Amino acid sequence: MHQPSLPHLADQDPELAGLVEAEARRQFEKIRLIASENYVSPAVLEATGSVLTNKYSEGYAGRRYYEGQQNIDPIELLAVERARTLFGVEHANVQPYSGSPANLAVYMAFLRPGDTVMGLSLPMGGHLTHGWSVSATGKWFNPVRYEVRADTGRVDLDEVRDLALKERPKLIWCGGTAIPRMIDFAGFAEIAREAGAVLAADIAHIAGLVAGGAHPSPAGHADVISTTTHKTLRGPRGAMVMSTAEHASAVDKAVFPGLQGGPHNHTTAAIAVALKEAARPDFSAYAHRIVANAKALAEALLERGFDLISGGTDNHLILIDLTNKGVPGKPAAQALDRAGIELNHNAVPFDPRKPFDPSGLRVGTAAITTRGLEPGQMPRVAAWIDDIVRATARGEDETAGEERRVAAEIRELLAAHPMPGWAPAP
């Protein structure tokens, strides 16, 4: 049963309502380990599905191009102020539609086409929008990429510094999508200052950990900070760009009118709700449990012979190289999904395989922590992953039975852990 309930959808479009219900049940019955996913609260769901979706509000509070903003302006200002307070920043823009547009706004605020930008290489854990070749950011700008060390799986700031002083980029990105270790924002800031570059911190994955005090903050180090509002922050599918006061005007002009029109007011309201939730003491405890679960899961996987990039994790994310298990990441991820464990295949540093059929798996613990799983349960999760990976390596005859067994055991476990937003019908 969806919470809030969806009686009108069920009446007007039962086919779609059935698919929504099926997706909710799937989320309830699976161990969700995709590092960019979570469960939002019923309050966030309600805000996202509110009548605010009816209103168009191009511009900013007090400077709109449409009338009727008497309630919208206070909602956006509330979200802005909550973001500023929670992250300790001087300026926040809550209008970007998602993470990639938020990052594009950073380019538009600080760079011109053809300028040099420096970011972590995508196969090393960076993001497409940090200058990768298939992204507009790699086509419209001159990308320079740093890597992780082959022997440690970690970024070497001495190597980053040498590259930055050689190439003199106008913008340096730190952060990414598959970085299991703590980001040294102060170290990156020192390099950016020496190279005369703007430092942008992409904290999309770790924003909730930063808000909860489980990861150091880039505030006070980075000139500009971008983030999505879902993942560990446990909000709606939206984004924010935060900055020092010096860059506030450039950031705002880049978001609107530079890249987009009217903001999605229902999303803005849901961001405000999520930011209020993240300011509570229990959210800090949640953020630290995410890390504790990730560390416990990483240790249990290591004990079962899995090769983890960098040897473990400092945050919510684990990157596994399956080469020593004799199975690529994609078939392993597909088998695990059938067995009730949802994660994604992922390239690993220096991966000899193609990006769509890579060697690794990416794992995150934000969603299972929301469901209430604890570090003491992580060895069992690791055992399930190991069982399915081993069965997949042995071949199809072995896999189906193991998948059914593990899926049943997972459903039994999760039945005792409520899911925000949905519950089985009594």
Automatic annotation (TrEMBL):
UniProt-annotated binding residues for (6S)-5,6,7,8-tetrahydrofolate: L122, G126, H127, L128, E246
Location of N6-(pyridoxal phosphate)lysine modifications: K231
Keywords: Amino-acid biosynthesis, Cytoplasm, One-carbon metabolism, Pyridoxal phosphate, Transferase
Reactions it catalyzes: (6R)-5,10-methylene-5,6,7,8-tetrahydrofolate + glycine + H2O = (6S)-5,6,7,8-tetrahydrofolate + L-serine
Enzyme class: transferase
SUPFAM superfamilies in the record: PLP-dependent transferases
Coiled-coil intervals: none
Compartments, as annotated in UniProt: Cytoplasm
The keyword Transferase belongs to this UniProt entry's keyword annotation: yes
Pathway: One-carbon metabolism; tetrahydrofolate interconversion; Amino-acid biosynthesis; glycine biosynthesis; glycine from L-serine: step 1/1
Swiss-Prot/TrEMBL cofactor(s): pyridoxal 5'-phosphate
Molecular function via GO: glycine hydroxymethyltransferase activity
Site, as annotated: Plays an important role in substrate specificity: H230
Domain spans labelled Serine hydroxymethyltransferase-like: 9-385
EC numbers on record: 2.1.2.1
Keyword Repressor: no
Oligomer status and interactors: Homodimer.
Assigned protein family: Belongs to the SHMT family.
Protein task: Catalyzes the reversible interconversion of serine and glycine with tetrahydrofolate (THF) serving as the one-carbon carrier. This reaction serves as the major source of one-carbon groups required for the biosynthesis of purines, thymidylate, methionine, and other important biomolecules. Also exhibits THF-independent aldolase activity toward beta-hydroxyamino acids, producing glycine and aldehydes, via a retro-aldol mechanism.
Protein name in UniProt: Serine hydroxymethyltransferase
